[in-house]
Amino acid sequence: MECFSKGWILILILSLGLFLTACSSGESANHASDGKIKIVTTIAQIAEPLQVIGGDLVEVNSLMGPSVDPHLYNATHGDITKIADAELVFYNGLNLEANMVGIFEEMKAAKPVVAVGEAVPEELLLKDEKGSIDPHIWFDLELWKLALDEAVKELQKYAPERSDVLAKNKEAYFAKVDDLSEESKKLSEIPVEHRYLVTAHDAFGYFGRMHDLEVIGLQGLSTDSEIGVSNIRSTIEIIKQYNVPAVFVESSINESSIKAVIEGAREEGVDVELGGQLYSDAMGKAGTEEGTYLGMYRHNVKTIYEALMGGVN
């Protein structure tokens, strides 16, 4: 704990120094060399849609790339420099980026720093048995539209002369989100007895609520919680009781816990398959279909559908 505290203090000192340097030079926010508005986000689920909506007006960079776990992420010196140099900063909030909250709070004095998740009404947020808010709101397409809309509004305030263009681009993007929502309704074809989504951690609550799937995560809402033998044991019992045909690994989570579930189930004579890899806290590589928000979501729908329908006789 002492080492963590010292590291955290060092990061805050570095960020404060960068902030004061920018203020003393009179340049707390600079356009990119090509005149684009410089935006930094934590997760790619915010960055990629904003780049599409902002088009040639913006240059959007995400701090966290493929396979990065935002729950455990600590900002680097380079990240602090990027945040200090950006004109707008967007993060999910709802305690997803728990180790970066202090930095964001400090930077709010210098520039717009927005937690897009706060745009979602509290009554629509999921909570665990301890009352902790589930931050994985991008898995509900309607909620994520609210979050992205909050980011676009902030961008419109920053560049009012391009407000109409941004509004038009947003509506075009949201139409694609709506198309994906319709496409995802095929999950309703999965028989009730197979509608169990078993994953490494509890990131798919909103996905499950939207698509009427029972979600079982070996870990809690955050990956900083430990997986015990009892978690694996209880998951195996669910698989046995409901004859769950497949379980899933996540791109940003070590797959050892899910493999332990598969092996444990097979030792008890239950043949459960590895249904494939899902994207939860991180998207795929840039330049791939899974490296886009819509493509990531579509991949998950397809993977879950094929794996759970594969157990239908």
From TrEMBL:
Name the GO cellular-component terms: cell envelope
Query: Where mainly found?
Result: other
GO biological process entries: cell adhesion; metal ion transport
Q: Where in the cell is it found?
A: Cell envelope
Q: Does the keyword Transport apply?
A: yes
A GO molecular function annotation here is:
metal ion binding
Q: Tell me the superkingdom of the source.
A: Bacteria
Give the UniProt keywords, A-Z.
Metal-binding, Signal, Transport
**What family does this chain come from, according to its entry?**
Belongs to the bacterial solute-binding protein 9 family.
Q: Which PANTHER family match?
A: HIGH-AFFINITY ZINC UPTAKE SYSTEM PROTEIN ZNUA-RELATED (PTHR42953), METAL-BINDING PROTEIN HI_0362-RELATED (PTHR42953:SF1)
Protein name in the entry = Manganese transporter
Species = Ornithinibacillus bavariensis
Q: What gene is behind this protein?
A: troA
